[in-house]
């Protein structure tokens, strides 16, 4: 199956900037897996549910399906090298960054993330060349100010320093 002429989803979504996450999981043999993901979105507040779309054939996806546990590492604004590393396909990506295994989730990238959500797999659904993963959040670890790394227009960007004050009140948004 191929896309209709002129339909390029990457180009379409380049105009829809997002934050950047690294989705991680431990393979059945205990080895770490992880990939950069911008397909993250929230689905439900109760039960707290996130969605990520992972490509078919991904070792990270295989680990999520094998263990039914994953973590979503939300990258902070200085973590562009981590986003590039985990989007590169490099086989040795976990040798080049600090990480820690935690029970009930995937590897934590605590130096690159501002916040980490541990999740358990609820359900998944194949759509074309990707698998939609729905995961329930079981624990949130806040590490530092949530000033995020951004991605849009096929470029990385950052939240302006001046806007940090906005985060001080973000807990009050309901
Ligand atoms: C900014 C950015 C966002 C990405 N978002 C996704 C995504 O949401 N889903 C996906 O399957 N791949 C995404 N990718 C591509 C994967 O990160 C890349 O293919 C990675 O090497 C896959 O790792 P794996 O081979 O261990 O599965 C993204 C890459 C970048 C650079």
CATH fold label: Pnp Oxidase, Chain A
Low-confidence residue ranges: none
Based on DSSP secondary structure assignment, what is the total number of beta strands? 10
Bound molecules: flavin mononucleotide
Strand content: 35-45%
Number of domains: 1
Write a structural description:
By secondary structure, this protein is of the alpha+beta class. The chain has helices at 9-14, 59-67, 80-86, 164-168, and strands spanning 18-19, 21-26, 32-37, 41-45, 48-55, 69-75, 113-127, 130-142, 149-152, 155-158. The protein is built from four helices and ten strands, in the order αβββββαβαββββα. The mean pLDDT is 93. It has a single domain, classed as Pnp Oxidase, Chain A (Roll). Strands 3-2-6-7-8-5-4 form a seven-stranded antiparallel β-sheet, sandwiched between helices. The chain has a three-stranded antiparallel β-sheet with strand order 1-9-10, with no helix packed on it. A hairpin with a 5-residue loop joins strand 2 (21-26) and strand 3 (32-37). 16% of the residues lie in helices and 40% in strands. Flavin mononucleotide binds next to strand 3, strand 5, helix 2 and helix 3. The site of flavin mononucleotide has 20 residues, from strand 3, strand 5, helix 2 and helix 3.
């Amino acid at each position: 199956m191929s896309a209709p002429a002129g339909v390029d989803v990457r180009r379409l979504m380049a105009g829809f900037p997002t934050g950047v996450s690294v989705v991680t999981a431990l393979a059945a043999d205990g080895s770490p897996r992880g990939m950069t993901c911008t397909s993250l979105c929230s689905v439900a507040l109760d039960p707290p549910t996130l969605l990520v779309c992972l490509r078919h054939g991904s070792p990270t996806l295989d680990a999520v399906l094998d263990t039914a546990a994953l973590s979503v590492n939300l990258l902070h604004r200085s973590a562009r090298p981590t986003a590039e590393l985990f989007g590169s396909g490099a086989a040795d990506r976990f040798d080049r960054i600090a990480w820690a295994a935690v029970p009930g989730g995937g590897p934590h990238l605590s130096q690159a993330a501002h916040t980490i959500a541990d999740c358990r797999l609820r359900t998944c659904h194949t759509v074309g060349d990707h698998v939609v993963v729905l995961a329930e959040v079981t624990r949130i670890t806040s590490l530092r100010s949530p000033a995020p790394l951004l991605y849009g227009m096929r470029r990385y960007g950052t939240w302006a320093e001046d806007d940090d004050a906005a985060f001080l009140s973000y807990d009050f948004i309901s």
